[in-house]
Amino acid sequence: MNQLTIAGKTYGSRLLVGTGKYKDFAETKEAIAASGAEIVTVAIRRTNIGQDPNQPNLLDAIPPSIYTILPNTAGCYTADDAVRTLRLARELLDGHALVKLEVLGDPVNLFPNMPETLKAAETLVKEGFEVMVYCADDPIQCRMLEDIGCVAIMPLASLIGSGMGIVNPWNLRLIIDNAKVPVLVDAGVGTASDAAIAMELGCDGVLMNTAIAHAKNPVLMASAMKKAVEAGREAFLAGRMPRKYYSADPSSPTSGLIGS
């Protein structure tokens, strides 16, 4: 399975995972290890990575020496808040440039605010950030984000935390077919089959958090997700057989049968 390349760096895993919603840092550490993920996203406004020296630091459980830390702007509702948050992250992570931008439009459904997302992306790219961006599954706006200079496009499969899976595979294919940067499904994955479907569609990777953290057994689900992403990628590269709804095609030859 060929490697994933983002902003000029290659990774062996195409599964990216979040760090929220686990019962403690110990479970976070164990689940992420089981996932095989190399890129781990962290909500800067919700997780301590050094902002408060008197509180447990997530980076002690998920060290940057092992993982690529991907700071994100979860909880931001304006471009200004998102830009300010990622400037702070860059300071905390010693000039780290790779970030995940998300600007939300509604606190209930957590759907992205695309005008503010586009505005923030433009500012961040100009300031030298390597922007991976959570966005609507809108092929036109995805192309606009790519034109701005984002290094990866991350359309939602369905609402954040919903576990509804991929509700619009046709839009995803339009985005994938036209993109020149990696396309990763972000949000909505509920179980391993959802991740496999995303990869079979041709996505370059999948980012998830709730599907693992809220499973009855997060560590086991993380392992399942690892396998699903790998299997889905292999199936995409192999090329599935064409669907035939109008005729049967026996697996065994019908000519030269014994006794005929």
Describe what this molecule looks like in 3D.
- The chain has 260 residues and is an alpha/beta fold.
- The chain contains 9 helices and 10 strands.
- It has helices at 25-35, 58-61, 79-92, 114-126, 139-148, 169-178, 192-201, 210-213, 218-238; strands at 4-6, 9-11, 15-18, 39-43, 68-72, 98-101, 130-135, 152-155, 184-186, 205-208.
- The protein has a 5-stranded parallel beta sheet. It has a 3-stranded parallel beta sheet with strand order 6-7-8, covered by helices on one side.
- The termini are far apart.
In whole angstroms, how far apart are the ends?
A: 44 Å
* CA-based shape: globular
Annotation field: number of helices: 9
Overall residue-averaged pLDDT value:
91
The oligomeric state of the chains shown is: single chain
Q: Strand pairing plus helix content: what structural class?
A: alpha/beta
Strand content: 15-25%
Radius of gyration: 20 Å
Helical percentage? 25-40%
The H-and-E topology, N to C, reads as EEEHEHEHEHEHEHEHEHH
Low-confidence stretches: none
Q: How do the strands line up in the largest sheet? A: 5-4-3-10-9
Number of beta strands: 10
Major sheet: 5 strands, parallel
Main features:
260 residues; alpha/beta; five-stranded parallel β-sheet; three-stranded parallel β-sheet; 9 helices; 37% helix; globular
